Structures are given as C-alpha cells and as structure tokens.
Amino acid sequence: MNKILVGLLAGVILGAIDGATAWFYPETRPVIGSILVGSSFKGMLVGLFSGWFARKVQSTKWGIVVGAVLGLLLAYGVAAMDATKGQQHYLEIMLPGFITGAIIGFSTQRAGAQPVTLR
Amino acid sequence: MDLSDSVLDHLRQVAALPDLSGTRYELEGEIGRGGLGVVYRARDRQLGRHVALKVLDAALAGEAPLIARLEHPAIVPIYEAGTLPDGRAFYAMKLVAGARLDQYVGRQTTRGDGPPHLVERLRVVRRVAEALAFAHSRGAIHRDLKPQNVMVGEFGEVYVMDWGVEGVAGTPAFRAPEPGLDARSDIYALGALLEFVLPALPPPALGAVARKAMSADRAARYADVAGLLADLERFQEGLAVEAWREPLLHKVRRFWSRNALLLWLLTAYAVVKFVLFFWGRR
C-alpha cells in the first residue's frame, strides 16, 4: 500500500471517529450525519497531503508537524464556517483536529511503501 | 665468552624470526601468535604499503586458498601466498588498523564516554554473522571464532580473521561441545561471541538468542546463521524473537516502547476530548 493511500484511509477513519464524538453533545446530535461526512472529508484531505509529504520527506517528526498543522488549518476553516452561523466552537474543533492531524501524519510516515525509483 | 641472558634472548628471537629473503616483504615486528602460526607486521617493498604477514606451519598451508576464496567485506582479503626459504608457508593480507573485539568492547575512549553502546556491539556481531553466513554458503567454516579473531577497524569496519583449517581445536569458551566441527559449531561460537559482547545484565531476548545458539544439543541451535541474524534484526526492530517466549508483561512493555509516540498521541487526543467535554458542560 502506498503512503498516499495509507494517509487517505487513516484520514477517513480518524476523521470519522473524530466526527462521531459529536454524538456526545446533544445539541449536535441532529446534524451528526453532516458532521461525520465533513470530518471524514477533512481527515481525507489531511491524509492525502500528509501521504504526499511522506513520499517526499522521510521524517516522523516532520510528518507529525505537517499533519498537525494541516489538521489545525482545516479545523480552523470548519470552526470559522461554524462561527458564521453564530456558534463559537474554535477550541472544541481545532484542538482535536490538531491531534488527529498529528496522528495521520505519524501514520503516513510509519506505514506504507515508498515509490520505487528507477535510475 | 659468557653471554648475558638478554643477549641470549635476543639471539633466540632473531633466530625465530622468519627469513623473508626472496620475498617482497620486510619484517617490522610481531603482531600476535595463534594456534596456526605467527602474524607479523611487514612492509611490502614493491607497493610501499604495510601488510599483515602470517607465517604458518607447512602442514597448514591450505588456509590461504580457503580464505582467498572468501571475498567478503568482513573477511580480511589475502594479497599473496607463498613459501619461505625454510619451507614454512606464509600469506600476506590487509593490515587492519583498529582493535580486537575483546579490546574494543572493553575500551574507554579518550572522550570518557565509555565502552561501545549495545547497538554498536550488535552491529559488530551482525557483521560477523554476515561474514560467517557467506563463508558457510561457500562451504567454508571458521572453526575458531572468538573475540580475538574479530577486528574492528578505525572506520568501524569489521573483519573476521584466522579462518580455521582441519585439525584446529578451537578455543574452549567458544568451542561447541561436539567432537566434529561443522557449520552449527560456528553458530555455537557466534552465540558465545554474542554473549561476550552483551552487558552483565543483557536484555532477556538477547540472552535467549545467545543461549539458543549455544545449546549443547546441536539440533536445538539455529539451523543456520541466517536464523540467528533474523532474531537479532527482530530484536532491534522491537519485535519478539523466536528464541524466547516472552511473558505478557514484557509483551505489553515492548508494544508500548515500539508504539510510544502513537500511544502518547492517542492519549493526548482522549484527554483533550474528555477535558473539552466536561469544560463545555460547565
């Protein structure tokens, strides 16, 4: 399995799990479906970029940093969209997004095969 | 005229030195003595380089062709073989600047950072094992593997020396108990070598690898050097070794240390979610 695919799968799964935790908040339960889809998509994007990065740079440290930063940026985007609807959930969305991104970045560095280069 | 003891000693030493006339080598001094002969430091006059010159008993002259067949980065290359005017066989080989493994393991560096780390010791053993595996694949066995026959060079290169010939008895602490020596006897010696480089309280998995290789029952040892090498690689990758059935607690600890970063990240995620949940409920 290549690193981009690993990132994609890890991103979708972890994003879905992160989104599913919204079920614990009664006020978000009615929209849990769209949260799940949005969170999975967000995770998928982080995984895709982290996987691409892992193909270029082999460093667990930098993989985590890139994943975490991407997760934070995308989570900020989601929180900002939420804020336009009058709901301020920056911390609740960005902090878990940051750590999820770090885990995705870590996974892409540790798993998956590098592309074979012919010289 | 009476000769003093020191003069007599000197004469005895000079008489024992090999006569290198007719060769391209110039004797510079003795490096060491082994069961197979004496190794001298010599200078190759033609090429202007230093070599290690091993002078053997004539009966053991078959050693050079045996080693010359083994072209491997961890086996000292033979430059030339020949016979001295007194009939003794000799061969010239690369002079390795460095330390014998027994000295290397016990060394104290000038920086005061002590003997080499376990990772470095295992690197040396793995290099020796690779040379041994190669020799076995060519039908040769060492017969006398011990720390004194392993050199670690200035650049970290590892050389296995003194490849044995028929009739060599081996060194007691590293010699397999069976009367006839074969590839599994070398595996025994390799296990003893591993045990030698390990610290007083080794990781249990490594101790088990050494014990399995040194099993008195030949059939209970690793079938080949590759099996032992694979176990060493598993240990270094944080995986379970075949030689040891590890207790559950050890398994958990190994899993944690192998996946510590991931587990810390997952823990951080769980803690953040937990705190945010209760903080939001206030």
Shape of chain A: elongated
Number of helices of chain B: 9
Gap between N and C termini of chain B, in Å? 110 Å
CATH topology descriptor of the largest domain in chain B = Transferase(Phosphotransferase), domain 1
Biggest chain contact: A-B, 16 and 11 residues
Query: Roughly what percent helix of chain A?
Result: over 70%
CATH superfamily of the largest domain in chain B: Transferase(Phosphotransferase) domain 1
Sketch the major β-sheet of chain A: none
Instruction: Please state roughly what percent of the residues of chain A sit in beta strands, choosing from under 5%, 5-15%, 15-25%, 25-35%, 35-45% or over 45%.
Output: under 5%
Strand order of the largest sheet of chain B: 1-2-3-5-4
Number of separate structural domains of chain A: 1
What is the string of SSEs of chain B from the N terminus onward? HEEEHEEEHHEEHHHHH
The CATH first-level class of the largest domain in chain B comes to Mainly Alpha
| CA-based shape of chain B | elongated
The percent range for strand residues of chain B is 15-25%
Helix content of chain B: 40-55%
Number of strands of chain A: 0
Instruction: Extract low-pLDDT stretches of chain B.
Output: none
